[in-house]
């Protein structure tokens, strides 16, 4: 936040540091398994995961649905795109 004004007025270019490309690393590819939501995680983590996986592969969640009258249980898979 302290340097934001220098970006707008153009003086940040004098403070910029050259990065060493030889130290750059590649990030691993995103897998579909990473897109599953686990509701024991904090809400902020779930929120960021939904944002990160928007589009492809989307986020997915498994929910247990219980019919109170018949006590019938079924698993439901949801996908958020």
UniProtKB/TrEMBL annotation:
Domain Formyl transferase C-terminal: 29-63
Entries under SUPFAM superfamilies matching the protein: FMT C-terminal domain-like
Keywords: Transferase
GO molecular-function term, one example from the UniProt record: transferase activity
InterPro entries: Formyl_trans_C, Formyl_transferase-like_C_sf
A Pfam entry, by short name: Formyl_trans_C
Top-level taxon of the source organism: Eukaryota
Protein name: Formyl transferase
């Amino acid at each position: 936040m302290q340097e934001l004004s220098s970006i707008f007025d153009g003086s940040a270019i004098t403070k910029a540091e050259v990065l060493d490309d030889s130290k750059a690393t590649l990030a691993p590819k995103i897998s579909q398994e990473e897109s599953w939501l686990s509701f024991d995680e904090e809400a902020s983590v779930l929120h960021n995961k939904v944002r990160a996986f928007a589009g492809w592969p989307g986020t997915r969640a498994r929910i247990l649905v219980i019919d109170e009258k018949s006590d019938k249980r079924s698993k439901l898979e949801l996908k958020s795109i």
